[in-house]
Automatic annotation (TrEMBL):
The lineage of its organism: Bacteria, Pseudomonadati, Pseudomonadota, Alphaproteobacteria, Hyphomonadales. This is Cysteine desulfurase. It comes from the Bacteria. The keyword Nucleotide-binding does not apply. The keyword Cell membrane does not apply.
Length: 387
């Protein structure tokens, strides 16, 4: 007898969210324009108005003006443009960064002061306040890069409070809001952020499009030079199709408040269920987290084993650790929180989103429980019940 085909379920939205139908439709329309937004003829003007419409949507989603938003090829480029462009203009800035930031930030700031991180995965504001009060870098202003929400744990950072501290010390703040957009309110007005990074594919738009916001008057020097597009801040012919898809995805995401509440409550139920059957740690559970993310671990169950076992059952999740050159590397995010290696090596991330349905949570946790049972990390009572 042939086995019934099971629909795969996708629990990896923080890696890339599936393309939203609204985004696909907007991209098809933009493709049909087939012109360069810098051209002055009618088709060029039509491409320009499509681009500016998308810019307006993305900018207003973060409480910004259209003129302050620049499109890029993604979050990585936006982070690099800001972190290098600000320091090119103001070489005396002294960067501060937390170990849990995305590599796209860490790689740009090898000389930064490493900020203290709490065991819940947030920047330690008491430490920051103290550092700024006793600032050891005479003549150099602080430049903090602090993400809005972490891609692995979903932990939300106290960005507004950090911005207030940094501004009081005459410094500047950049916020990588790639994971926050569409999953929580994002506003440049919270603490008057100086720079913000965004990306299209985490919100249900296409990959290969992103943006940066610069507060009017904040220091910046363009690093990608050429034809002077994007008001000279980022040269290169704009990715009109990507921008249209990004705008449509953001527009759709802004109407999903009720969905986010449901995701949070289903996620909480799923975590409670996993904890009831095994000695599961939920990273960041004591502080505010994105509603869609759950990063869990249990000692004795390696992340690769769980990811593969769940994949065989059609459940797509990510491991918190990264595999490179055949070796499993501990997650730098969990390391920054002081999580011991044995626990960190078992960390997997479930992340849900716009197309998730209620039963996905049950199927994902069923698959995890079966994998854990096979490895003998499930509590004895449950094993007896299932014997
Ligand atoms: N910043 C964060 C927090 C991310 O999660 C990611 C993607 O994983 C990036 C930046 C990079 O964005 P992109 O994939 O658009 O280059």
């Amino acid at each position: 007898m042939a086995l019934a085909k099971i629909d795969p379920i996708y629990c990896d939205y923080n890696a890339t969210a599936p393309l939203r139908p609204q985004s696909k439709d907007a991209m098809v329309m933009a493709m049909e324009i087939g012109a360069n937004p810098s051209s002055v003829h009618r088709l060029g003007r039509s491409a320009r108005s499509c681009l500016e419409e998308a810019r307006e949507i993305v900018a207003s989603a973060i409480g910004a003006c259209r003129e302050d938003l620049t499109f890029t090829s993604g979050g990585t480029e936006a982070n690099a443009a800001i972190l290098n462009g600000v320091r090119l203009q103001e070489p005396l800035l002294m960067p501060i960064v937390c170990g849990f930031e995305h590599d796209a930030v860490l790689a740009q700031l090898p000389d930064a002061i490493s900020a203290q991180v709490t065991s819940d995965g947030q920047i330690d504001l008491v430490w920051l306040e103290d550092l700024l009060k006793n600032w050891p870098h005479e003549g150099r202003s602080p430049f903090l890069s602090l993400m809005l929400a972490n891609n692995e744990t979903g932990v939300i950072q106290p960005v507004e409070a950090a911005a207030n501290l940094i501004h009081a010390a005459d410094g500047l703040i950049h916020c990588d809001a790639v994971q926050g957009l569409g999953k929580m309110p994002v506003s440049v007005l919270d603490g008057e952020l100086d720079y913000v990074t965004l990306s299209g594919h985490k919100v249900g738009g296409p990959a290969g499009i992103g943006a940066f916001y610069i507060r009017a008057g904040a220091p910046f020097k363009a690093t990608l030079l050429g034809g002077g597009q994007e008001m000279g801040l980022r040269s290169g012919t704009q990715n009109l199709i990507g921008a249209a898809g990004f705008g449509a995805a953001v527009d759709a995401a802004l109407n999903e408040e009720a969905k986010l509440v449901t995701l949070a409550s289903k996620r909480d139920n799923m975590e409670a269920r996993l904890k009831s059957v095994a000695n599961v740690t939920v990273f960041g559970e004591n502080v505010p987290r994105l509603p869609n993310t759950s990063c869990v671990s249990v000692e004795g169950l390696r992340a690769e084993t769980q990811v593969m076992a769940m994949d065989l059952e059609g459940v797509a999740v990510s491991s918190g650790s990264a595999c490179s050159s055949g070796k499993v590397k501990q997650s730098h995010v969990l390391a920054s929180m002081g999580v011991p290696d044995e626990l960190a090596l078992g960390a997997i991330r479930f992340s849900f989103g716009w197309a998730t349905i209620d039963e996905d949570f049950e199927r994902a946790s069923d698959a995890w429980i079966r994998a854990a049972q096979r490895k003998g990390v499930i509590s004895n009572t449950l094993n007896k019940e299932n014997a």
